[in-house]
Design goal:
Layout (H helix, E strand, L loop, with lengths): L3 H23 L4 H20 L1 H11 L5 H24 L3 H28 L10 H4 L6 H27 L4 H32 L5 H51 L6 H5 L8 H18 L6 H13 L4 H22 L19 H13 L1 H16 L2
Length: 394
């Protein structure tokens, strides 16, 4: 059960990393994407190698008692460095300055990793300790310095990240602000982890026994902290993707009314374009917008400018704004043209040059026209008028 509390969050982080791999392969030069992916991978390693069962397995495989200690400390140090690098790239700024700051952070934490390995090699830790190595060897030369060094590096990163993310969170939009606040909360827990570790070691130096703080209080703080920090980094990216996806879905659905109203006017060009049943929503939206443009173009011979003029005037008389009145008038002329085309499909495209006015068709215009086609009585009246006109035409 204790192992699951490490392995489950580790699996979540590793899954998030694997989901990022396709994008990383497509954009290998994307610094921010590389930073996020690296953070997720290192975070998954933190959980994997910090689990007591993994610690025992690594010690057994290497044949070196407590070999897992510097390994876990090095991974935690790398995680701290990865967080700093990600925030540096996330905030942006002059590219050269961003690269220089990132390289300095990587170099500094790489030196800490090397120092941890050297100190472990110089020290003597013959008794395997799976859960209380920090306090058990708190007075052992070199091992003591190794523990203090990794805690100091961890604390420095936590303080810097807390300050940077909190200041930044006060100047950004909602989605990013939520992510940054999660990171801040995670690093506050990190500082709690460092605090109880230092307290337990300080008690050992003073001849007292506060080992329970290090053994039982610190690990849950570290687990929750890593999850919050990882989630805080990923949340704005996922939230943005969900927001964009939701916006696309809403636009696709709203354009459906206009697309169905124009279905009978489908051009040969739009009919020849097919997409797979598993095509992305972005591609489906693109196809729907293109089909609507094609169908409006096919209706050009049926456009009746008098319908546009009358509907525009009626909309203004109802108190509509000029832009809204224009959209209603365009929708009425297009819907009426579709009705006329259905009643008289053989009209010559050159028969009525005065009717050839093309309505504006930006993406937002299409959505407004689709809404009008669905709900506006003015549009419904224009369709009725077009049907009567076509039925009386010999």
């Amino acid at each position: 059960m204790e192992g699951l509390s490490f392995y489950i969050p580790g699996a979540v982080m590793l899954t998030a990393f694997l989901l990022k791999l396709p994008a990383l392969r497509r954009n290998p030069d994307d610094t921010l994407l590389r930073s996020v992916s690296g953070l997720l991978l290192v975070a998954s390693f933190v959980f994997l190698f910090a689990a007591p069962s993994t610690i025992a397995a690594v010690n057994r495989i290497t044949g070196i008692p407590n070999f897992s200690a510097p390994l876990v400390y090095c991974i935690l140090t790398a995680f701290s460095g990865a967080c700093l690098v990600l925030v540096i790239n996330w905030r942006g700024g002059p590219p050269e300055q961003t690269r220089r700051t990132s390289r300095l952070s990587i170099a500094a934490y790489s030196l800490v990793v090397v120092a941890l390995i050297v100190l472990f090699a110089l020290g003597d830790a013959p008794v395997e300790r799976l859960r209380d190595l920090d306090t058990y060897y708190a007075n052992t030369p070199f091992i003591r310095e190794m523990i203090v060094l990794y805690l100091l590096a961890h604390t420095v990163a936590a303080v810097v990240m807390t300050v940077l993310c909190w200041r930044w969170s006060r100047r950004v939009g909602r989605m990013l602000r939520y992510g940054l606040r999660l990171i801040v909360f995670g690093y506050l827990l990190n500082l709690g982890f460092d605090g109880v570790k230092f307290a337990a070691m300080g008690a050992r130096w003073a001849g007292r026994d506060w080992d329970g703080l290090s053994t039982y209080v610190a690990p849950p703080l570290a687990q929750v902290s890593a999850l919050l920090i990882g989630t805080g980094f990923v949340f704005p990216l996922i939230g943005h993707r969900i927001g964009v996806g939701w916006s696309t879905a809403v636009r696709y659905r709203r354009l459906g009314y206009l697309a169905r109203a124009l279905n009978s006017a489908a051009s040969s060009m739009s009919a020849s374009v097919t997409i797979g049943r598993w095509a992305s929503l972005d591609l489906r939206l693109m196809k729907r917008e293109a089909a609507i443009h094609d169908r409006i173009l096919a209706l050009t011979p049926y456009f009746d400018h008098s319908i546009h003029t009358d509907t525009y005037a009626a909309a203004l008389a109802q108190g509509q704004t000029d832009d809204h009145a224009q959209s209603l008038a365009d929708a009425a002329m297009i819907a009426a043209a579709s009705t006329a085309q259905a009643a008289n499909p053989g009209r010559n495209s050159l028969a009525a040059p005065e009717r050839a006015r093309q309505p504006s068709r930006t993406a937002d215009d299409l959505v407004q026209m689709s809404h009008a086609v669905r709900r506006s009585p003015l549009v419904h009246e224009a369709c009725r008028r077009a049907a009567l006109t076509e039925s009386s035409t010999p």
